[in-house]
Amino acid sequence: xxxxxxxxxxxxxxxxxxxxxxxxxxxxxxxxxxxxxxxxxxxxxxxxxxxxxxxxxxxxxxxxxxxxxxxxxxxxxxxxxxxxxxxxxxxxxxxxxxxxxxxxxxxxxxxxxxxxxxxxxxxxxxxxxxxxxxxxxxxxxxxxxxxxxxxxxxxxxxxxxxxxxxxxxxxxxxxxxxxxxxxxx
Length: 185
What we know:
- 9% of the residues lie in helices and 38% in strands.
- By secondary structure, it is mainly beta.
- A hairpin with a 2-residue loop joins β13 and β14.
- It is globular, with a radius of gyration of 16 Å.
Protein backbone atom coordinates (compact mmCIF):
# COMPACT_ATOMS: atom_id res chain seq x y z
CA UNK A 1 0.00 0.00 0.00
CA UNK A 2 1.18 3.52 -0.75
CA UNK A 3 2.01 5.61 2.30
CA UNK A 4 0.62 8.77 0.69
CA UNK A 5 -2.90 8.12 2.00
CA UNK A 6 -1.69 8.42 5.59
CA UNK A 7 1.08 11.01 4.99
CA UNK A 8 3.80 8.40 5.46
CA UNK A 9 6.97 8.32 3.41
CA UNK A 10 6.12 6.48 0.19
CA UNK A 11 7.98 3.32 -0.75
CA UNK A 12 7.62 1.73 -4.18
CA UNK A 13 8.18 -1.98 -4.96
CA UNK A 14 11.82 -1.23 -5.86
CA UNK A 15 12.37 0.34 -2.42
CA UNK A 16 12.57 3.96 -3.61
CA UNK A 17 11.10 6.46 -1.20
CA UNK A 18 9.06 8.52 -3.62
CA UNK A 19 5.62 8.29 -5.20
CA UNK A 20 5.45 8.49 -8.99
CA UNK A 21 2.06 7.96 -10.52
CA UNK A 22 -0.78 8.87 -12.80
CA UNK A 23 -4.38 9.63 -11.88
CA UNK A 24 -7.12 9.50 -14.48
CA UNK A 25 -10.20 11.70 -14.26
CA UNK A 26 -13.54 11.93 -16.00
CA UNK A 27 -15.44 15.07 -15.00
CA UNK A 28 -19.06 13.94 -14.72
CA UNK A 29 -20.20 17.42 -13.76
CA UNK A 30 -18.26 20.56 -12.93
CA UNK A 31 -17.18 24.04 -13.85
CA UNK A 32 -14.65 26.78 -13.24
CA UNK A 33 -16.27 30.19 -13.38
CA UNK A 34 -18.45 30.06 -16.52
CA UNK A 35 -16.54 27.21 -18.18
CA UNK A 36 -18.45 23.90 -18.11
CA UNK A 37 -16.00 21.03 -17.55
CA UNK A 38 -18.61 18.25 -17.73
CA UNK A 39 -17.47 15.34 -19.88
CA UNK A 40 -13.78 16.30 -19.93
CA UNK A 41 -11.19 13.52 -19.49
CA UNK A 42 -7.71 14.25 -18.20
CA UNK A 43 -4.77 12.63 -16.45
CA UNK A 44 -2.62 14.06 -13.71
CA UNK A 45 0.97 12.86 -13.35
CA UNK A 46 2.70 13.20 -10.00
CA UNK A 47 6.06 12.83 -8.35
CA UNK A 48 6.04 13.17 -4.57
CA UNK A 49 9.64 13.00 -3.29
CA UNK A 50 8.55 12.33 0.29
CA UNK A 51 5.38 12.31 2.38
CA UNK A 52 2.68 14.58 0.94
CA UNK A 53 2.89 17.39 3.50
CA UNK A 54 6.65 17.73 2.90
CA UNK A 55 5.82 19.46 -0.38
CA UNK A 56 8.10 19.74 -3.40
CA UNK A 57 5.55 17.93 -5.61
CA UNK A 58 5.97 17.79 -9.36
CA UNK A 59 2.64 17.79 -11.21
CA UNK A 60 1.83 17.61 -14.94
CA UNK A 61 -1.44 17.10 -16.80
CA UNK A 62 -2.65 15.68 -20.09
CA UNK A 63 -6.05 16.93 -21.21
CA UNK A 64 -8.10 14.80 -23.59
CA UNK A 65 -8.44 15.81 -27.24
CA UNK A 66 -12.20 16.29 -26.80
CA UNK A 67 -11.75 19.29 -24.48
CA UNK A 68 -12.15 22.80 -25.87
CA UNK A 69 -9.41 25.42 -25.52
CA UNK A 70 -11.46 27.09 -22.74
CA UNK A 71 -11.85 23.81 -20.86
CA UNK A 72 -8.13 23.08 -21.22
CA UNK A 73 -7.23 26.51 -19.87
CA UNK A 74 -9.62 26.05 -16.92
CA UNK A 75 -8.07 22.68 -16.03
CA UNK A 76 -4.59 24.18 -16.29
CA UNK A 77 -5.63 26.93 -13.85
CA UNK A 78 -6.89 24.30 -11.39
CA UNK A 79 -4.01 21.80 -11.61
CA UNK A 80 -1.27 24.46 -11.76
CA UNK A 81 -2.51 25.79 -8.41
CA UNK A 82 -3.61 29.22 -9.65
CA UNK A 83 -7.12 28.50 -8.29
CA UNK A 84 -5.89 27.51 -4.82
CA UNK A 85 -6.70 24.26 -3.09
CA UNK A 86 -4.17 21.46 -2.58
CA UNK A 87 -2.49 22.04 -5.94
CA UNK A 88 -1.69 25.63 -4.97
CA UNK A 89 0.09 24.74 -1.77
CA UNK A 90 2.58 21.99 -2.38
CA UNK A 91 4.07 21.73 -5.83
CA UNK A 92 5.67 22.72 -9.07
CA UNK A 93 3.59 22.53 -12.24
CA UNK A 94 5.60 20.82 -15.01
CA UNK A 95 3.19 21.60 -17.81
CA UNK A 96 0.20 20.55 -19.85
CA UNK A 97 -0.15 18.50 -23.01
CA UNK A 98 -3.11 17.46 -25.16
CA UNK A 99 -3.57 13.82 -26.20
CA UNK A 100 -6.17 11.09 -26.36
CA UNK A 101 -7.27 10.29 -22.80
CA UNK A 102 -9.62 7.30 -22.51
CA UNK A 103 -10.84 6.19 -19.08
CA UNK A 104 -13.28 3.28 -18.75
CA UNK A 105 -15.30 2.05 -15.77
CA UNK A 106 -16.23 -1.47 -14.80
CA UNK A 107 -14.83 -4.40 -12.85
CA UNK A 108 -11.32 -3.52 -14.07
CA UNK A 109 -11.21 0.21 -14.83
CA UNK A 110 -8.71 1.23 -17.50
CA UNK A 111 -6.96 4.43 -18.44
CA UNK A 112 -5.16 4.96 -21.72
CA UNK A 113 -3.22 8.11 -22.55
CA UNK A 114 -2.08 7.94 -26.16
CA UNK A 115 1.61 7.09 -26.38
CA UNK A 116 2.24 7.66 -22.67
CA UNK A 117 0.38 5.46 -20.22
CA UNK A 118 -1.64 2.26 -20.02
CA UNK A 119 -3.29 1.48 -16.70
CA UNK A 120 -5.61 -1.40 -15.86
CA UNK A 121 -6.80 -1.46 -12.27
CA UNK A 122 -6.96 -4.85 -10.59
CA UNK A 123 -8.65 -4.68 -7.16
CA UNK A 124 -6.95 -6.37 -4.22
CA UNK A 125 -9.30 -9.00 -2.79
CA UNK A 126 -10.08 -9.54 0.88
CA UNK A 127 -10.74 -12.89 2.58
CA UNK A 128 -14.38 -12.83 1.44
CA UNK A 129 -13.35 -12.24 -2.20
CA UNK A 130 -14.65 -8.67 -2.21
CA UNK A 131 -12.49 -5.64 -3.06
CA UNK A 132 -10.28 -4.20 -0.32
CA UNK A 133 -11.17 -0.62 0.59
CA UNK A 134 -9.70 2.14 2.71
CA UNK A 135 -11.87 4.58 4.66
CA UNK A 136 -11.15 7.90 6.32
CA UNK A 137 -7.57 8.24 5.03
CA UNK A 138 -5.79 11.49 5.76
CA UNK A 139 -5.18 12.01 2.03
CA UNK A 140 -7.56 10.53 -0.46
CA UNK A 141 -9.76 11.94 -3.17
CA UNK A 142 -12.76 10.20 -1.59
CA UNK A 143 -13.81 9.18 1.93
CA UNK A 144 -13.54 5.54 0.80
CA UNK A 145 -11.58 4.06 -2.09
CA UNK A 146 -10.73 0.63 -3.48
CA UNK A 147 -7.12 -0.56 -3.32
CA UNK A 148 -5.42 -2.51 -6.08
CA UNK A 149 -2.64 -2.63 -8.62
CA UNK A 150 -2.21 -0.78 -11.88
CA UNK A 151 -0.10 -0.47 -15.07
CA UNK A 152 2.93 1.39 -16.41
CA UNK A 153 3.79 4.84 -17.69
CA UNK A 154 6.49 6.79 -19.50
CA UNK A 155 5.48 10.46 -19.41
CA UNK A 156 7.02 13.78 -18.38
CA UNK A 157 10.11 11.89 -17.18
CA UNK A 158 7.92 10.39 -14.43
CA UNK A 159 7.96 6.70 -15.30
CA UNK A 160 6.74 3.75 -13.29
CA UNK A 161 6.05 0.02 -13.56
CA UNK A 162 2.90 -1.77 -12.34
CA UNK A 163 2.33 -1.18 -8.65
CA UNK A 164 -0.24 0.30 -6.27
CA UNK A 165 -3.53 1.85 -7.42
CA UNK A 166 -6.76 3.36 -6.07
CA UNK A 167 -10.22 3.78 -7.61
CA UNK A 168 -13.14 5.92 -6.39
CA UNK A 169 -15.77 8.44 -7.28
CA UNK A 170 -15.42 11.76 -5.51
CA UNK A 171 -16.19 15.46 -5.45
CA UNK A 172 -13.46 18.10 -5.67
CA UNK A 173 -13.53 21.81 -4.99
CA UNK A 174 -10.86 24.45 -4.56
CA UNK A 175 -13.24 26.04 -2.06
CA UNK A 176 -13.30 24.66 1.52
CA UNK A 177 -16.52 22.87 2.49
CA UNK A 178 -19.05 24.95 4.44
CA UNK A 179 -17.98 25.12 8.07
CA UNK A 180 -14.45 23.85 7.34
CA UNK A 181 -11.49 25.75 8.71
CA UNK A 182 -8.54 26.17 6.38
CA UNK A 183 -5.05 26.58 7.73
CA UNK A 184 -1.65 25.05 8.22
CA UNK A 185 0.13 24.28 11.42
